[in-house]
Write a structure and sequence with these properties.
CATH architecture: 3-Layer(aba) Sandwich
Number of helices: 7
CATH topology: Rossmann fold
Structural class: alpha/beta
Radius of gyration: 17 Å
Distance between the termini: 21 Å
Length: 268
């Protein structure tokens, strides 16, 4: 794969104390800070110089935006982000894209709003799209998101011409229902994929869900998928909403590899 990051500004993180950074360190992975326009984003590449095909883009979930029901977290990044671990072990071209105001990037445009009520806001989506467009302007993309990362993957795909597939894992695809069910305060300023017109039928969607998930109810995922033009549902007996998915990581990674193969060989 040709060099794709030299054309825009990159800043190497010099010192990071969050536990999540140890995942990079232990795997010997480099990471950069890139601008998406509005916000700064952590970005890491796992690229093959001989592969110009589809690239898998991982977007993690909401982490820990609230310490309790009434107390906001100072730092929302999970100690062990689910998809970061999958990105590290994936052996096909992939990118890990950090969300705005995560990974303690010292971005002066950040405030708690951007990882609480505004976590799926227009500025967030625009910035993530901007970061990817600069990094991977000419490559077909497979966007993969867990939980709130799935929300953002769907919203981003609406605005990107080179997204060929979207894969969500326990995706928060009906934000309004999720808020009302949990009696959360309204996410003022955030977007909701279920209120969009949906992706065109050229974008293949795969939505993983668990019947045991009490955070993202399976019926919400099914209802969402039923209104899409090209959506595949896959049920897995995962326990819980977060770490339980690690037990099925190989199954999902095989689906990602199959999806990449189909895109690269014109089957999609």
């Amino acid at each position: 794969m040709k060099t794709i990051i030299a054309a825009f500004y990159l800043c190497v993180i010099s010192a990071c104390s969050l536990p999540a950074y140890k995942v990079f360190e232990n795997a010997g992975k480099d990471y950069k800070v890139v601008s998406g326009g509005k916000f700064q984003h952590l970005l890491s590449f796992n690229l093959d110089a001989g592969d110009d095909g589809a690239v898998v883009v991982f977007i993690d979930g909401d982490g820990v935006p609230w310490r309790s029901r009434h107390q906001v977290s100072y730092e929302p990044t999970s100690d062990s982000p689910l998809l970061l671990g999958w990105f590290i072990k994936l052996d096909v071209p992939s990118v890990y894209l950090g969300r705005p105001c995560y990974y303690d990037l010292d971005d002066d445009r950040c405030s708690v709003y951007w990882y609480t009520h505004g976590r799926y806001g227009d500025d967030v989506v625009k910035s993530m799209v901007g970061a990817l467009n600069k990094a991977l302007p000419d490559y077909p993309l497979i966007l993969v998101g867990h939980s709130g990362g799935g929300t953002l993957a769907m919203l981003m795909a609406e605005r990107m011409h080179n997204v060929k597939s979207v894969v969500t894992i326990a995706g928060n695809l009906q934000v309004k229902q999720w808020v009302e069910h949990n009696q959360y305060s309204e996410l003022v300023g955030s977007l909701d994929p279920s209120l969009s017109l949906g992706l065109n039928d050229k974008v293949h969607q795969i939505h993983f869900y668990s019947p045991n998930d009490s955070v993202i109810r399976p019926e919400w995922v099914k209802q969402f998928a039923s209104k899409q033009k090209n959506a595949e549902l896959i049920e897995l007996p995962v326990r819980g909403h977060n770490d339980g998915w690690n037990s099925f990581s190989e199954d999902i990674i095989n689906v990602l590899k199959r999806t990449k193969y189909e895109i690269d060989h014109g089957a999609q």
